């Protein structure tokens, strides 16, 4: 018998109905279903149908028991029991807060006496009862359906074992040293053309650089990164961490061009470069997938880089001075 409790399924209840009809002892029912006898007692007591007017129709029926259990679980949902908390979450979602931000700030700021986790908010957004509100449109990815974790098929092993993220030094992992970056590619709808953005985040300072590309091929993307980072001193561009997308297959050009080492996440594990992934969610709020990048220009007005132990200034966008504390 498993030590991890699982809810009874409809198939379990159909088998239990047959055993109840045969008046099998509860201990034997529990043995055949692989459950504790208390689970069987509780299931029969809570989900037996009672009809006072027609008692001959009362009894334990699998489909009726399954509906009773589902209805009970829906009534016990936290956001159904606390409508004020539900309204607060809807307001925050519509104000472009992410579920992670909502769950964290509700607890940190004491906005609600009821604790709630991120997964509860996601389930609320995608539940059948509340899906009609269209709250998924306010999420960072704005997906109509939830995508299971690890659903993407892993790519062939085209990256060397020596570049795996597990081989990356600890001083990069703990963010104790400046000059180590995470990179990703932001793509847009096909009818908007092939233009895309390379987003790069420095792990220690969270300094962010976005580079506009006209192609998804690896070589031009790497050339743009080299051109943008070559003005920096060597200690400020020591390494880059990417996922295993084919757009980063030309990573060796970085080592040849600017002397930067490259590291790669495990297959289907882009969350291992969480800094740039979280940054991308913020960028998507202002540049969703239907953005026309042909109307967005990026002219490097100055390549003068001033780097001190406390301040990094880099003018790389349309006349915008990007200042971040290092």
UniProtKB/TrEMBL annotation:
It holds the Pfam family HTH_38. The keyword Cell inner membrane does not apply. It comes from the Bacteria. Residues 165-285 form the Integrase catalytic domain. Keywords: DNA recombination, Plasmid. GO terms for biological process: DNA integration; DNA recombination; transposition. One of its GO terms (molecular function) is transposase activity. InterPro entries: Integrase_cat-core, IS30-like_HTH, RNaseH-like_sf, RNaseH_sf, Transposase-Integrase, Transposase_IS30-like. SUPFAM superfamilies: Ribonuclease H-like (SSF53098). One of its GO terms (cellular component) is cytosol. This is IS30 family insertion sequence transposase protein.
């Amino acid at each position: 018998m498993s030590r991890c409790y699982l809810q009874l399924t409809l198939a379990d209840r159909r088998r239990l109905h047959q055993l109840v009809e045969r008046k099998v002892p509860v201990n034997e029912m529990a043995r055949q279903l692989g459950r504790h006898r208390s689970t069987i007692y509780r299931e029969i007591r809570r989900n037996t149908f009672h009809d006072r007017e027609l008692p001959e129709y009362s009894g334990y029926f699998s489909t009726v028991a399954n509906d009773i259990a589902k209805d009970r679980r829906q009534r016990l949902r936290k956001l159904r029991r606390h409508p004020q908390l539900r309204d607060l979450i809807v307001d925050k979602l519509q104000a472009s807060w992410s579920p992670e931000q909502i769950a964290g700030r509700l607890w940190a700021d004491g906005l609600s006496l009821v604790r709630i986790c991120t997964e509860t908010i996601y389930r609320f957004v995608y539940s059948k009862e509340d899906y009609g509100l269209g709250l998924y449109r306010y999420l960072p990815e704005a997906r109509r359906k939830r995508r299971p974790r690890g659903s993407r098929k892993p790519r062939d092993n085209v990256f060397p074992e020596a570049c795996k993220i597990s081989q990356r030094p600890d001083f990069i992992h703990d963010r104790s040293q400046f000059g180590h970056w995470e990179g990703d590619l932001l793509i847009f709808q096909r009818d908007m053309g092939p233009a895309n953005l390379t987003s790069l985040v420095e792990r220690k300072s969270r300094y962010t650089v976005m580079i506009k590309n006209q192609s998804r091929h690896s070589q031009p993307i790497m050339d743009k990164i080299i051109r943008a980072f070559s003005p920096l001193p060597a200690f400020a561009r020591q390494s880059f961490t990417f996922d295993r997308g084919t757009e980063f297959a030309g990573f060796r050009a970085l080592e040849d061009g600017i002397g930067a080492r490259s590291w790669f996440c495990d297959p289907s594990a882009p969350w291992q470069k969480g800094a740039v992934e979280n940054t991308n969610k913020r960028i998507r709020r202002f540049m969703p997938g239907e953005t026309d990048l042909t109307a967005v220009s990026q002219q490097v007005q100055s390549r003068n880089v001033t780097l001190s132990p406390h301040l990094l200034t880099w003018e790389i966008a349309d006349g915008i001075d990007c200042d971040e504390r290092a």
